[in-house]
Amino acid sequence: MEVENEQIYNVNPTELDHLSDTPFSGEEENGGSEAIKTEINGNWIAASSINEAKINARAKRRLRKNSSRDSGRGDSVSDNGETLKSGVTAPTSPKGKFLDRRSRSGKGRGLPKKGGAGGKGVWGTPGQVYDVEEVDIKDPNYDDDQENCVYETVVPPLDERAFDKTLTPMLQEYFEHGDTNEVAEMLRDLNLGEMKYSVPVLAVSLSLEGKASHREMTSKLLSDLCGTVVSTSDVEKSFDRLLKELPELMLDSPRAPQLMGQFIARAVGDGILCSTYIDSYKGTVDCVQARAALDRATVLLSMKKGGKRRDSVWGSGGGQQSVKHLVKEIDMLLKEYLLSGDVSEAERCLQELEVPHFHHELVYEAIVMVLESTGETTFKMMLDLLKSLWTSTVITLDQMKRGYERVYREIPDINLDVPHSYSVLERFVEECFQAGIISKPLRDLCPSRGRKRFVSEGDGGRLKLESY
Predict the structure, then answer these.
(1) Which residues pair with 77 in a beta bridge?
(2) Most buried residue, 17, 149, 304, 400, by CB count within 10 Å?
(3) Beta strands 43-46; 37-40: pairing state
(4) Long-range pairs of 336-345 with CB within 8 A, sequence gap ≥ 24
(5) Which residues of 182-206 are buried (b: 16+ CB within 10 A; e: fewer)?
(6) How many CB atoms neighbour CB 320 within 10 A?
(7) CA distance linking residue 431 with residue 221, whole number of Å
(8) How far apart are CA 142 and CA 28, in angstroms?
(9) CA pair distance 175, 220, nearest whole angstrom
């Protein structure tokens, strides 16, 4: 028996794996009573012992497979082949001792450690508020100066290169929206340092290359910035620098001396330059351009009603003007044209208004003047003016069409004051079509008033139904 038991336990596991999993052969299933023996390494071993070894090997394989993924969670199998209940870790599992989160002493209620304040990435218990940490005087890194420190955001001052790069797009954007308060707020956020006087210099230099409306907006900007962003001394220093740089400014804008004189006169009128500023340069100016600018400013300041003249030194154009003011300017333009007959001057004045979206008002007023006139002079002059403005594309097709349509809609009211307005309008529209000013569809839209005719003298005043 001892020899047989030693042979049983010395069986190679690889040979046991190749054995059949069925504990009985075909004869035992058929009811055979004789024990079946198997020959391994020349020795005969009982079938019952082989079956027990296979069961143990299968249980160990199952235990190794489940120990890595189901240890401590699901059901596992012990060494004896018995199934353990859920939540009980097999004692032979290699991770059973390390994954057990219960207290080893057997005490406690299973609550998280440190009240939930422990672990990676945790700043304390939920809802905990930290107080101001008191400085320990006995700390070797303690410094007395740290208690009296005041921390502030420091903006470095702008140098000349950064100044031009920052303020140039800011001023160009101002020429589009015209809000001086926005520019003032943006300038307060910058640390201009000693470059404050350069703000008027840059603004005036950019406006010299722009339109008259840009120069008017620049004068308003300087007036609003004086006292808040720049001082009066900064403004005087900026104009001193502009007078010195006039020869260079003339390379880009030949009219720089005259425009600079207007800027100086407007600044004196707005109160940002003292009235003795020009007198301080008498007899000390060697530059021809600077002398011309100062002479221009002196002439503007010495004119009668100089205050009103200085306020409109840049003209009265631009989209910032009111509609009532623009209508008045266009009416004065047409009246001056009827007196002088200079088409080019009228075209220049219209362009200086800088309201291309409002050119339909000139077309409307010109046609109304033709309807209200009694002679042929106004008829021909207005026809020549509209033809010139159309040929030079100063007035676009849309503005020309809108002006004629306004006259077509209001001709019934105009006819109440001018009885022959329908016939004059038909004749003027036909002449404009022959000159190529308007198109055929626009000419066909011209309204015509039908003539009422009697049937005959003996019909008692009965009117015909149709109109001619």
Answers:
(1) 83
(2) 400
(3) antiparallel
(4) 337/381, 337/385, 338/369, 338/378, 338/381, 341/381, 343/384, 343/385, 343/388
(5) ebeeebeebebeebbbbbbbbbbbb
(6) 11
(7) 48
(8) 92
(9) 11
Residue 61's nearest CA partner among 21, 10, 4, 7 is 21
Round to whole Å and give the CA distance between 450 and 237.
73
CA distance 21 to 241: 108
pLDDT tens by residue, 295-339: 999 888 887 444 444 555 666 556 667 888 889 989 999 999 999
For residue range 116-172, list pLDDT tens digits in order.
Answer: 677 777 777 777 777 777 778 888 888 877 777 777 888 788 888 888 899 999 999
- Please measure the distance between the N-terminal and C-terminal CA atoms of the chain and give it in whole angstroms: 144
For residue range 6-46, what is the model confidence (pLDDT) as tens digits? 444 444 444 444 444 444 444 444 444 444 555 555 566 66
- Ramachandran category for residue 274: left, alpha or beta (phi over 0 → left; psi -120 to 50 → alpha): beta
Residue with tokens 């903006």: 155
In angstroms, the CA 292 to CA 285 distance is 10
- CB of 203 within 8 A of CB of 171? yes
Query: What whole-number distance in Å separates Cα of residue 331 and Cα of residue 341?
Result: 15
371 CB-contact burial (10 Å; exposed 0-12 / middle 13-18 / buried 19+): buried
CA distance 352 to 187: 31
Q: What CA–CA distances, in Å, run from 87 to 64, 73, 74, 81, 99?
A: 18, 5, 6, 17, 12
- Ranked by mean pLDDT, the top range of 134-148, 281-295, 438-452 is 281-295
Give me the amino acid identity at 156: P
For 443, list phi and psi in degrees, rounded to 5. Answer: -70, -40
